[in-house]
Amino acid sequence: MTASVLEFSPENTRPFLQEVMEQSGQMLTACYQCRKCAAGCTVGDETGSFTPNILIRAIVLGDRETALNNELIWKCVSCYTCGTRCPNDIQTARITETLKKMAKKAHVQPVLPKVAAFHDAFVESGMRWGRLNEMEFMGVYELKNALREAKTKNYETVVKEFKTQAELGLAMLKLKRLHFGFLFSKGRGEIKALYRKNRYKQALKAKRG
Amino acid sequence: MEIAYYPGCSLQQSSSLYDHQTRMIFSRLGVELKEIEDWNCCGATSAGKVDDFLAVVMPARNIGIAESAGFTEMVIPCSACYSRTIVAQKRMQDNPELRDEINSGLTAKIKGSIRISTIMEVFLNHVSPDLIKQKLTHKFRGLKPVCYYGCMQTRFPYNVPASDNVENPQAMETLLKLFGIRALDWNYKTYCCGASAAVNDPDTALNLMAKIMKEAAARGANCFVTTCPMCQMNLDANQEAFCKKHDIKERLPVYFITELAGAAFGISPEDMQVDRHFIDSMTLLKELEQNEHKDK
């Protein structure tokens, strides 16, 4: 992606901007495009110069399409350099996190589906057992990837990924860095119950508008 | 003295050597680490990307367990667990409503403000420099490490005061100096290694790691030192891959700070399980030890 042209959409600006600001808790209108975030962005070289300041600009202009469809929100490694350096205390990483959730809700296909699958599998596993079981989690994640690739008959990618992971797994086995026991936390039900209760509360709140 | 200990999932699995070393080093220094009961996963950065509430609840339960057991301080070696836990604590301090909501579902309630520490803070706050000097059996003068802090020790997605300088942290350098080891100054100490991108977006992650490696090599370092299991695993397990991709000749061991502490205290690398690294990390320590004997 090269430096893209942003669409200004006056009718969408306010609701979209408001939505992102509320969900991320960040005051986006304070951004004066000094580009300190861009200078510090770890993945700036990897996103075709689509840097955090451009993402903020897209949101402020109401360009929902660009905001939910760009490499930055998926390549962001949550290193928090942008937010640490921002003179106006805007945590752009909280915005990329928010946009990931909004994209999912709006059924927008992630630009990097593997990243989405990874975080989903991580949290699911951590919730299921109360502790993350690395082998089980990696297995579920790879299975999700393989199924997605198989749908588009992209078998070559599946085989390549499988080979890479098998090599790493073998190296880890040799170094005794694979754990065969099973970890869990007895109190995991507490977290699940609180999570469900909060989800219900959020849904009610959204309904009331 | 007794401090609550939260190992986190990776220290029980792929980085169990770090757990082993941490317990060993601190018991030698008279600091008793008590693993908290039935702790759960902190959610790492993934939880924040899936659900904000979850990102607070997961670490919150662990805080409640430690506080209910009567501890006033909890040490968390893993940088991701440390960061998530300290952020969750601050968010609940700033938002009593959120804290009450979480407390309503927890058996071990969150009370106030247990101190959450990195292992560097425990070293520097609870172990006297004199005691460290007494324990020293070796001076690894030939070691030229660069201290690699990564992201999560000093940068937070929320207004949490950092325990060290944000852009140029010094805790590891200070500690190494107590061991008689002088770290090199360099530019990439808080740069990101790519974290989970090594798994889900390897092209990006390998490029980031190569930048870190190039700078370390250019400064004449002969090893990395880190406290983060994710950084250690990334730079160690992927080193062959990113060096090949970017035409880098050097290979550098990626030590945990606990390994260098152990080496300085005369614990054999085998006992510390340094042989569980991907890049050979035994040879350098053994060579330095032999040279030391020759000097004497």
The unreliable regions of chain A are none
Straight-line distance between termini of chain B: 36 Å
Counting DSSP H or I runs of 4 or more residues, the number of helices of chain B is 14
Query: Which radius of gyration of chain B do the C-alpha atoms yield?
Result: 19 Å
CATH superfamily of the largest domain in chain A: Alpha-helical ferredoxin
Query: What is the N-to-C order of secondary-structure elements of chain A (H for helix, E for strand)?
Result: HHHHHHHHHHH
Q: How many runs of DSSP E, i.e. beta strands of chain A? A: 0
Main beta-sheet annotation of chain A: none
Radius of gyration of chain A: 20 Å
Helix content of chain B: 40-55%
- Coarse shape of chain A: globular
- Backbone structural class of chain B: alpha/beta
Tell me the major beta sheet of chain B.
4 strands, parallel
Number of domains of chain A: 2
Describe the structure.
The complex is a heterodimer of chains A (about 210) and B (about 300). With about 210 residues, chain A is mainly α. Chain A has 2 domains: about 10-105, Alpha-helical ferredoxin (Fumarate Reductase Iron-sulfur Protein, Chain B, domain 2, Orthogonal Bundle), CATH 1.10.1060; about 115-210, no CATH class. Chain A contains 11 helices and no strands. The radius of gyration of chain A is 20 Å and the shape is globular. Chain B has helices at about 15-30, 45-50, 50-70, 80-95, 95-105, 120-125, 130-135, 170-180, 195-200, 200-220, 230-235, 240-245, 255-265, 280-295; strands at about 1-5, 30-35, 75, 115, 145-150, 225, 255. In chain B, about 50% of the residues lie in helices and about 10% in strands. A 4-stranded parallel sheet of chain B has the order 2-1-3-4, sandwiched between helices. In chain B, about 55% of the residues are buried. In chain B, strand 1 (about 1-5), helix 1 and strand 2 form a beta-alpha-beta unit. Chain B is globular, with a radius of gyration of 19 Å. With about 300 residues, chain B is of the alpha/beta class. Classes of the chains: A mainly alpha (about 210), B alpha/beta (about 300).
